[in-house]
Amino acid sequence: MNEILERLKQLNLDIDSIVPIKGGDINDAFRLESFDKKYFLKVNSANNFPHLFKKEARALEAIKKTKTFSVPKVVNVGEAGKDFQYLLLEWMETSTPTVVNWENLGKNLAKLHQNTSKQFGWSEDNYIAIVVQPNSLTDSWSEFYAKNRIMPMMKLLQNKQLINSKQIKSAENLCKQLNSIFPEEKPALLHGDFWNGNILANKKGEFSVIDPAIYYGHREMDLAIAKLFGGFDDVFFDAYHENSPLAPNFEERLPIAQLFPLLIHAYLFEGYYVKDVQTILKKF
Q: 54 vs 28, 57, 259, CA distance in Å?
């Protein structure tokens, strides 16, 4: 940590105090305060999670360029010493969102998804939390979801002995049916980890987004994560549907779209998330 602080001194930020922030499962987090400014510092292992923060910084910049959501400004990103990496962001003061704020969140997510690509994937592999997220480009969503999301995570869970070979087979059966489950759509730019903890109502009341796991995918994935962990006002979903209606039977497809975030949580936290994964796979 001292090496990071020495590195930050070169930025002439005149830091007066460093306050640890509780609640982070993934990174060590701190609020840095100077005379007239505050900053948010995240620290993690450079050896265990190579380029984690550099990839996050590039993802924040990509979202910023869409002019849909505000994101925290990246002040500095880098490595210090043999093992530490860090990301220094502007501090974002939060406020209580209004109905209008929730409505705008839905509209802005719809606008983000209007940024499309010819292929599913991303220019580099990145992370969701601290799990590597493969982003090899494919021409179809079914191929991408199977090869880059479901099966890699199933193998990680099998390596931890959280699932068995029968459930691997069920996942393979599911992957063969994906083409008939999801409606065909253009690859949409996704936040990738769009749960309640990654949206912040800022001082102006509008929502900013943090911690993206960005890629071009099926837009129902962002909505599936939002529904999975709750905390979103119904006004948000209504506004999204009004601006970018989903194909019929979204609720029926929802468990399949939620399978990936559940796989991630089963890998990180085990417990009932493993049972949720097993329940979905039983049908296949």
A: 16, 5, 27
Q: Is 134 helix (H, G, I), strand (E, B) or coil?
A: coil
Tokens 């191929």, residue?
143
In the residue annotation, 83 being an active-site residue is answered as: no
Enter the pTM of the model.
Answer: 0.95
Per-residue pLDDT tens, the chain, 284 aa: give them. Answer: 677 777 777 777 778 888 888 756 688 899 998 888 899 999 999 999 999 999 999 999 999 999 999 999 999 999 987 789 999 999 988 888 899 999 999 999 999 999 999 999 999 999 999 999 999 999 999 999 999 999 999 999 999 999 999 999 999 999 999 999 999 999 999 999 999 999 999 877 789 999 999 999 999 999 999 999 999 999 999 999 999 999 999 999 999 999 999 999 999 999 899 999 999 999 99
Q: Spot the catalytic one: 25, 193, 211, 238.
A: 193
Q: Beta strand 74-80 with 126-128: parallel, antiparallel or unpaired? A: unpaired
Using alpha carbons, select from 54, 27, 55, 51 the residue that is nearest to residue 41: 27
Q: Hey, where are the domains in the chain?
A: 2-90, 99-282
**CATH number at 2-90:** 3.30.200.20
CATH 3.50.50.60 fits 99-282, yes or no: no
Please give the Cα distance from 124 to 131 (Å, whole number).
14
Measured distance CA(165)–CA(199) in Å, rounded? 37
